[in-house]
Predict the structure.
Amino acid sequence: MVAVKNLSPGLILSDAVITPAGKTLLNAGGVLSQRAISLLSMWDVNYVYINAEDDHEPSESQAILPPPSSSFDISKECMQFFQEYDSILTSTDSSFEFVRNQNKVPVLALKSTSFAIYSSILTTGPALMDYLLISDYQLASKIARHTAMVAYICGLIGRQLNYNETELKALTLAGLLHDIGKMVISHENSSTSEKDHVINGARLIKNVKGISDEVTLSVLQHHEYLDGTGFPMGISSPKIHPYAKIIAIADIFHYHSYLEDYCNPFNALNVITKDMFGKLDPTICQMFTKQVRDSLLNSNVILSDGQEATIIFFSPNSNDPIVKTLDQKLIDLSTDKTRSINRMCTPDYPLS
C-alpha cells in the first residue's frame, strides 16, 4: 500500500480503486498517469495498492527524469474543460447506474448533465474538438464515456448546422440517452440482439415527463441508415429524424476512434467517409470530417513504426495526412503505405 502523495507516474495498480459506494474509479492493472494521481487526490483517496515490484520510493535520479510522453502546453481553458468533462462523466455514470439498478430514468439528473454538456459546448468554443480528441479514455465506465462523448459531438454538429437553443438542447439530450437501452437489456432477456437496446431505450423513456417525442424517436432510430439497411425498422432517409442522422455519425465516430485504449480518429474518419454516400447523411459527414481534420492539424501522433510525429497538412478529400517526425522528416501517409497512425499523443494533465 502506498500513500497517494508518494505516487509517481508509471506505477501500476495491483487492486482497483473503489469508492465506499462501490464505484470503480480506476481498474487493477492500470498504469498511473499524473492526471490519475491528481484525480485520486481530488476524490480524497489516501492510499492505493501498487504492484510489489513497483512498491518503492523513486530515487532522486528517477524523480528528475521527464515523463515519457510528449510535452504539452495545457492552457487554462483546456484545464477548465477537463474539469467540466470529469464532472460530466461522473454524473453520467451515476445516472446510468441508477437506470441499471432501478430500471427507471433519473430524468432531472440526466437533463442536468445534458445541460452541462450544452453549456460546455457554448463556453469552450472552437477548441472543443481539439480537447475531445485528447480526452482520457480510462476514466468512468465505458457507457458513460461513450454517451457523454456522443452528446458532445452531436452538440458540435448541431452548432455547425445553426440549430437554435431549443434544438441544440434536445439534440444533446438525445445523444446522451441514445444507448440508455443497454442498461435494461439484462433485465429483459437472457439472449439479446443488437437491435434490442434501441427498442428498450425508446420504451424506457417513452412518456417520461420532460423527454420529448423527438428525443425518444431519435433514440429509437439512431441505428437506421439512409439506404434502409439499418435497424430496428429498416426505414430510409425521409422517415429518419434529423437528430437520429446526427447521432448515427457521432456514434460511429466515437466507437471507431476508441477501438483500442488510445484515441485514433483516423479509423473513424475512414469509416464515415466510406459510408457517407449510402448509409449516412453526406452533407453532415463532409462538414464534420472537415472539422475533425482541421482540429487534428498540429496534433502529435504516434506512427506504426513507433516514431512521434506532428500532423501538418491534409490533402483535399484525404484522411491520411502529411506528418513531420521529430527529426524533421516529412512523410505523406496517403502515399507511404508502409506506415500509418497508431494513436494520438495524450497529455497527462493535473487537475489541481
